[in-house]
Amino acid sequence: MFHFRAVVPVSARQTITGIRGTKSTGLCVKAQAKGGAIRIDLYYNERLDRDEYTIRHCTNLGRGISEVIERGVIGQRIVTD
Description:
Elements: E1 4-8, E2 17-21, E3 27-33, E4 36-45, E5 50-58, E6 67-73
Antiparallel strand pairs: 1-2, 3-4, 4-5, 5-6
């Protein structure tokens, strides 16, 4: 049974594309541009029994930077000082 789902609501396609992932596989979505890419990883933290995410810059075709932008828990606000 699928735990995660991603959709691409706007694109050059005529239909909405859907992608699914399970608790064990998680889900990774990568959006690319000429200057780099953004990658979002969704995963289940079994120890804490919660869904978490990581958003990061990553390179594309040798361009861009690689660094984590943010980590958090899905469905919870980010607390900043």
